[in-house]
Design goal:
- The protein is α+β, with helices and mostly antiparallel strands and 298 residues long.
- The protein folds into two domains: 1-25 and 85-147, no CATH class; 151-295, Immunoglobulin-like, CATH 2.60.40.
- The chain is 39% helix and 26% strand.
- The protein has five helices and ten strands; from the N terminus they run H-H-E-E-H-E-E-E-E-E-H-H-E-E-E.
- The protein has helices at 2-27, 29-42, 85-147, 230-233, 237-244, and strands at 58-59, 62-63, 151-157, 164-171, 177-189, 206-214, 219-226, 249-260, 268-279, 284-288.
- The protein has a five-stranded antiparallel sheet. Strands 3-4-7 form a three-stranded antiparallel sheet, with no helix packed on it.
Amino acid sequence: MLTKHRFFAVALFLGLISAMCAAQANMHAPERQTRKSAATASTRPMPLNGAASSASPNCANGPCDYQQPHITIATPAPAPAPWPLQDRIKWLTVVLLVLIAYVGVWLAIATLRQIERQTGYAEATAQAAADAAKAALTLAENQARAERPWILVTAEATPGVVNSFSVVATNRGRTPARIVTLADGLAVVHDETDLPAAPIFKGDNRALVEPILLLPGESASLKSFSRDEVKSVCANPEQVQRVEDWEEKVFLYGNVAYNDLSAPGGVVHETGWCCWYIHGRQKSGMIMAGPTDYNRHT
């Protein structure tokens, strides 16, 4: 941008100088014309002495063989006319206008450069302010997430009961949580890839008559499953045998909804869970498993 401004200023300056020179040349044109006419008159050709003539040259005392030299004195060139005061004032005015225009162009270029710098500073300031606001928002969101409750679900052995396991919800956050709804489901399939893309629960999420309150670090059992229940979830003894041979697997899954007691508005969060009940010939076990959509946290 700056190079274009300089080029424009130089072009304007050269154009004004050319106009000024042309004006001065027009003012001195009559003087040069007068001088040219005088020079032409003074250089008029003279006749040659050896030129043949039908008549004898005339001399002062009569006819003679040779023409006497004839000298012609030309009118002297007139003195150059004085430069009128009006023309001087006009020429000085043109020079002043050229200088004023040149100074104005450079001032305009300097102003444009200053505006360009200020625009760059304003853009940098705006970008810095936007980055600072974004960082502050991210910090506030991270702080809110750090202070909110987090319900995590794990599979644990039921104390005092052999081959029985429980699905336990634990508040790993920093504020109290209230569990408001529960949902669960069960499927016997060949592998976890055969599970439905989205969990299919037995009915809608059921609201708890008495919501479960969990302080930070506290736990509560959501569901239990034992070895004796395998026969009730299988369609026939052959399927039970396939489960014992690990040809098919028993998956328990569910969803728990809870809200933050310290947050205004009662924002509801959800935690999904999925477990694989390992049914052996003599002993059983249960571990967390399943696709990502079954273990979703919000």
